[in-house]
Write a structure and sequence with these properties.
The chain is an alpha/beta fold. A hairpin with a 5-residue loop joins strand 3 (about 50-55) and strand 4 (about 60-65). The protein folds into 2 domains: about 10-110, Translation factors (Elongation Factor Tu (Ef-tu), domain 3, Beta Barrel), CATH 2.40.30; about 120-250, Nucleotide-binding domain of ferredoxin-NADP reductase (FNR) module (Rossmann fold). The chain has helices at about 5-10, 85-95, 130-145, 165-175, 200-205, 225-235, and strands at about 15-25, 30-35, 50-55, 60-65, 75-80, 100-110, 120-125, 150-155, 180-185, 195, 215-220, 245. It is built from 6 helices and 12 strands. The protein has a 6-stranded antiparallel sheet with strand order 4-3-6-1-2-5, covered by helices on one side. A 6-stranded parallel sheet has the order 10-9-8-7-11-12, with helices on both faces. The protein binds flavin-adenine dinucleotide. Flavin-adenine dinucleotide binds near residues 63, 65 and 89.
Length: about 250
């Protein structure tokens, strides 16, 4: 554990107010909130925050959101996907505007984090909005001078649902040690030459660094996605303890 992790995990995490500085439309179902928090202690790529909403009658709702921004950025970015009938996601997407405030606490989590310290190849596997903490890792890697070879395998419903598409493509164009593999599950453009359908064993075998290279593996997305991908990786010979997972919610997509 690094000094930053130790101090983050032993510190008592208090609620604090954050100001919304900007709202970025990422896809038709996803926005990023750029937040300024006074006295933010810093975070590691992969950590998350808790958000707490309080209604006029005192009713409170609390949810977790991964931090999409790298430790180097001044503003904290959270990327929120609309969940049908979702209490908190709908509020964050529809009601929050620049200048508004909201309560958050963090950073939280010391397990699903990547610092680049080991130099191992990096294998990131995302389902939908599960790309958020992995984007913090890619952005952190992009800012650092020594870049471990990396692959992002990203499953989305359609091309228009690919979050951060322009930024990811630009990163890959300027860095030939980064590969991006898209899988489009529901709808593909006519001229699509990438993978159609869900991430499968063949695609994982062809694109993940082999177990002998001891890659750092991070899988994030809906619960069913994470369970299915982790199971396939174990079948491919990866040590279950080398696969770090984060589950966002109950359903697959
Ligand atoms: C560590 C962690 C990090 C997270 N990071 C992010 C993030 O970066 N971006 C993000 O958008 N979400 C993230 N989530 C999910 C987030 O915390 C909420 O669960 C999500 O926004 C739904 O909350 P809601 O109040 O809108 O829906 P709710 O009112 O809680 O649920 C409404 C309905 O949708 C179902 N549901 C709840 N969550 C999901 C889901 N994720 N997928 C599909 N169906 C669901 C419920 O079972 C229910 O039927 C993260 C979760 C965890 C645990």
């Amino acid at each position: 554990m690094t000094a930053t992790e130790t101090s983050a995990s032993s510190r008592r995490i208090e609620w604090q107010l954050a100001e919304v500085r900007d709202v970025v439309i990422e896809t038709p179902r996803v926005k990023s909130l750029l937040l300024r928090t006074a006295g933010w202690p810093g975070h590691l790529a992969g950590q998350h925050v808790d958000i707490r909403l309080t209604a006029g009658d005192g009713y409170q709702a609390q949810r977790s959101y991964s931090i999409a921004s790298p430790p180097e950025d001044e503003l904290l970015a959270l990327t929120v996907e609309r969940v049908k009938d979702g209490e908190v996601s709908q509020y964050l997407l529809d009601e929050l505007h620049a200048g508004d405030q909201l309560e958050l606490r963090g950073p939280i989590g010391g397990y699903f984090v990547w610092t680049g310290a080991t130099g191992s190849p990096l294998c990131l596997i995302a389902g939908g909005a599960g790309v958020t903490p992995l984007m913090a890792m890619l952005r952190h890697r992009d800012r650092s001078t020594s870049r471990a070879p990396a692959v992002l395998m990203y499953s989305a419903r359609s091309l228009e649902d690919v979050i951060y598409r322009d930024e990811i493509d630009a990163m890959a164009r300027r860095d030939n040690s980064l590969r991006i593999v898209h899988a489009l599950t529901r709808e593909q453009p006519k001229d699509w030459i990438g993978h159609r359908g869900r991430l499968d064993k063949c695609l994982l075998a062809a694109n993940c660094f082999p177990p002998a290279q001891d890659p750092a593996i991070y899988v994030c997305g809906p619960t069913t996605f994470v369970e299915s991908v982790s199971g396939l990786l174990v079948e491919l010979g990866f040590d279950p303890f080398s696969i770090k997972t984060e589950r966002f919610g109950p359903s697959g997509g």
